[in-house]
Design brief:
With 46 residues, the chain is mainly α. The protein contains three helices and no strands. Helix 1 crosses helix 2 (26-33) and helix 2 crosses helix 3 (37-45). The protein starts with a helix and ends with a helix.
């Protein structure tokens, strides 16, 4: 993965964390950020 790709992934994770703090479900976070539901659930468990 390139440095730019890693930065984008980290940015998406941080956005997901903010949405989780607002009480948004992982499936909705996945749809909003255009990532897989599996990724959103994994991030939510961290």
């Amino acid at each position: 993965m390139t440095a730019v790709g890693g930065q984008r992934r980290e940015s998406v994770r941080m956005q997901a964390a903010e949405l989780f703090e607002q009480g948004i479900k992982p499936s909705e976070v996945a749809r909003h950020l255009r990532v897989s539901t599996q990724s959103a659930y994994q991030w939510h468990q961290l």
